[in-house]
Amino acid sequence: MRRSNYKGRRVARRKVKPNLVIAIIIIFVGLAMASWKGTEAYFKSHFAKDTVIQGVDCSYLNINKALNKIFDELSQQSITLAFENTQYEFCRKDFEVTISDVEQFKTSLLDILEFVQPQKGNKGGEYIFASFIKVSKEKTKEVLQTIPELQEENMVSPVDAYIKVQEDGTLAIESEVIGSTIDFDEAVSFCIECIEDGETTINFTDLIEMPEVLSTNESLNGRVNDINTILGAVINFEFADGSTYTLNKETTKEWVKVDEVGNYYVEMENVEAVVEELNKQVQDACEQITFTPTDLTTPMTLPGKLKVELDIEAEKVQIIKDLVDGGERIREPIYKDGLAPRDMLSYIEVDITRQMVWVYIDGECVLITPCVTGKPPRHDTPTGVYYLSYKTMGEDGKGVWLRGYNDNGTRYASWVQFWMPFNGGIGFHDANWQPTFGGDWYLNHGSHGCVNLPYEAAQTLYNYIDTHIPIIVYCS
Q1: Of 165, 183, 182, nearest to 174 (Cα)?
Q2: Does 223 share its domain with 322?
Q3: What pLDDT shows up at residue 6?
Q4: 3 assigned to some structural domain
Q5: How far, in Å, CA of 294 to CA of 296, rounded?
Q6: Same domain, yes or no, for 187 and 270?
Q7: E strands along 332-454, which residues?
């Protein structure tokens, strides 16, 4: 076997000396430091990226260039004057916008420059210095004088909401008129303020003079609601004879008044006239009564005036309350002692046909007794509704003499212990000369018109009877 004589060649490698490597590193570091120092020096006089001042991009500009650019762009910046339905376009230069203090503004720019240093880790940002912008008042006036909405002849004055009377007498609120009135001097000041604050759209609708009273005014609505509640109230009064009287809007609408400053109110003093009318109708309604006699089922109508008293003050108070509460109601008038004529809880009943007397007090029958009434046909006891005139047992309490004339012209004198007249010389009294009471005794032995009673019955009646209890005399 042949052995090769080949031997691999060793590639020679040049060794780099350590001093050379260090030198290269030093060169690169030096270059980096030089570049960094150059950048640092640059941004000491130039604004960093994304630095926006007064809405103007000042990236990489020095202070003078930034100042010029800010002024140029601010002058060309659009200003919109907005009204309710129209907008008008202008430029800031139309208002002669300037920087009020250039040196002070430069100082502020320098402060921003020192802050936005990239090497400090700070980035650009947005900066606005409204106090450095100045707007010419004269130029602003010239611009605004060209706006139709700011001409006085084109303005509509505001009108307050107010109360009006409708055809049916109720009240309603007439809505306010917003109008379009703007004070010109106020508009000038407002425009200057907005531009100096850096605003580009100025809305003048905020300056429109508003009405002082709106339709949503709580006081106005409260007054209308209160008065309409009164006007909407219906009070139906029912009287003893079934007749009625109605108090409603047809009457109360005449009570609505307005004072010298336009405030509406209701003259409640008119309630007095209503109560007077009620009192009259109460009396008229009691000229006769419908009455169902004891132990009978058929009612009868009797002539005669029930003595009723309307509680004037209580009725005034109640009517006002009913009106204020509103709604519709049916009720009787308010009588004194709370007793309505139809209640008839206390009364004295005299039936000539049955020759009987019943006494009811507060709904309870406290006396039933036979009697003797007037002898027909000349001395019939008159039927009707009466009230006690007075009652007496004489000055010494021993009775009284009843004197008069017989049919033949002779005089008579009858002594009685209890005397209770209710119809002139006709009244209740005891009659010890009558041997019997009730039945048909009265036909031949009746009185001169009085109602004769047994002694004990007369005494009981005397203790109960008073001038407020109706006495009902009828023939069943």
Answers
A1: 165
A2: yes
A3: 36
A4: no
A5: 5
A6: no
A7: 347-351, 356-361, 364-370, 384-387, 400-405, 411-416, 419-423, 426-430, 451-453
**Are 333 and 436 in the same domain?**
no
Print the domain residue range for 304: 218-338
User: Three-state SS across 254-278?
Assistant: HHEEECCCCCEEECHHHHHHHHHHH
Predicted TM-score (pTM) of this structure: 0.62
- For residues 386 and 393, the answer to whether their CB atoms sit within 8 Å is no
Same domain, 52 and 198: yes
Compute the CA torsion angle 95, 97, 100, 102 (nearest 10 deg). -160
Residue 440 lies in a domain: yes
pLDDT tens by residue, 175-186: 999 999 999 999
Residue-wise burial string across 286-312, b where 16 or more C-beta atoms lie within 10 A, e elsewhere: bebbebebeeeeeeeebebbbebebbe
Taking the C-alpha atoms of residue 184 and residue 416, their distance in angstroms, rounded to an integer, is 104
Domain containing residue 265: CATH number: 3.10.20.800
Residues 408 and 294 in one domain: no
436 or 69, which is more confident: 436
Q: What is the pLDDT of residue 399?
A: 93
Answer yes or no: are the C-beta atoms of 178 and 208 closer than 8 Å. Answer: yes
Of 338, 373, 389, at which residue does a domain stop?
338
In Å, what is the CA distance from 88 to each residue of 135, 144, 149, 205? 18, 10, 11, 13
Inter-residue contact 356 to 368 (CB < 8 Å):
yes
Answer whether residue 174 is part of any domain: no
**Assigned token pair, 262:** 């336009």
In this structure, the answer to whether residues 128 and 238 fall within a common structural domain is: no
Mean pLDDT value of segment 21-30: 55
Closest C-alpha among 302, 429, 294 to residue 351: 294
Please indicate, yes or no, whether residues 283 and 319 belong to a single structural domain of this protein: yes
User: C-alpha dihedral over 373, 375, 377, 383, to 10 degrees?
Assistant: -10
Beta bridge partners of 368: 358
Residue 13 has pLDDT above 80, yes or no: no
3-class secondary-structure state, position 85? coil
**What CATH code is carried by the domain that includes residue 399?**
2.40.440.10
The span from the CA of 465 to the CA of 79, in Å, is 100
What H or E segment, with its residue span, contains residue 103?
Answer: helix 102-115
Number of domains into which the chain is organized: 3
Residue 120 lies in a domain: yes
Same structural domain for residues 189 and 266?
A: no
Residue type, 287: E
Place of tokens 């109230």: 233
User: 32 near 52, Cβ under 8 Å?
Assistant: no
φ/ψ of 194, rounded to 5, equals: -65, -45
Model confidence over 187-222: pLDDT tens digits? 999 999 998 888 899 999 989 999 999 999 999 999
